[in-house]
């Protein structure tokens, strides 16, 4: 789905993004929880959802995407409260990650300027940055972290 003004969002695009970002996350979380709760209570269990810095802000032409990422943040918080102390639930919320999928967006100079004007650190994330955040939240070092969102956004949401 391309970025669209709220008034121009097609119902089919709305349904697709809700299905992808909310329904799929809920169903995957539910399946993981069921499996994690089957055995004994021993061991550190963690669910880490991939959200977005857009789950903490608004943006023009991104109402549907922002809405679904805000919902994912809400699911994470509710699940964390419900499942503590047996399962920790958190999100990683990156800003734009430099990938083959996002590179074409940055060919548009206006969009590129808009993004970089919002990242005080002045660069995009790498997929390694996202992986490192997930690894941290899955590790024993994060044993007391649940219901939170680790924003790796170069300062985007600090403003």
At a glance:
By secondary structure, this protein is mainly α.
Keywords for this entry:
mainly alpha; NAD(P)-bd_dom_sf; Rossmann fold; Short chain dehydrogenase; 159 residues; 4 helices
Could you characterize the architecture of this molecule?
It is globular, with a radius of gyration of 17 Å. It has a 3-stranded parallel beta sheet, with helices on both faces. The chain has one domain: 3-Layer(aba) Sandwich (Rossmann fold), CATH 3.40.50.720. The protein is mainly alpha-helical and 159 residues long. Helix content is 43%, strand content 10%. Helix 1 packs parallel to helix 2.
Q: What would you call the shape?
A: globular
CATH homologous superfamily heading: NAD(P)-binding Rossmann-like Domain
Termini, distance in Å? 27 Å
Mean pLDDT: 94
Helix/strand structural class? mainly alpha
Order of helices and strands: HEHEHHE
Radius of gyration: 17 Å
Number of strands: 3
Helical content (DSSP H or I, runs of 4+): 40-55%
- The CATH class designation is Alpha Beta
Low-confidence stretches: none
Provide a count of the helices: 4
Biggest sheet strand line-up:
1-2-3
CATH A-level architecture: 3-Layer(aba) Sandwich
Largest sheet: 3 strands, parallel
What name is given to the CATH topology?
Answer: Rossmann fold
What fraction strand? 5-15%
């Amino acid at each position: 789905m391309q970025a669209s003004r709220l008034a121009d969002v097609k119902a089919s695009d709305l349904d697709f993004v809700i299905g992808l970002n909310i329904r799929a996350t809920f169903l995957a979380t539910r399946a993981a929880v069921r499996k994690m709760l089957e055995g004994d209570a021993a061991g550190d269990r963690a669910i880490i959802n991939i959200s977005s810095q857009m789950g903490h802000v608004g943006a023009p032409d991104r109402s549907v995407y922002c809405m679904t990422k805000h919902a994912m943040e809400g699911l994470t918080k509710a699940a964390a409260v419900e499942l503590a102390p047996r399962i920790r639930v958190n999100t990683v919320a990156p800003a734009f990650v430099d990938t083959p999928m996002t590179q074409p967006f940055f060919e548009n100079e206006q969009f590129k300027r808009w993004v970089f004007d919002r990242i005080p650190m002045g660069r995009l994330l790498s997929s390694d940055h996202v992986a490192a955040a997930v690894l941290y939240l899955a590790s024993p070092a994060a044993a007391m972290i649940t219901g939170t969102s680790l924003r790796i956004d170069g300062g985007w949401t600090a403003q």
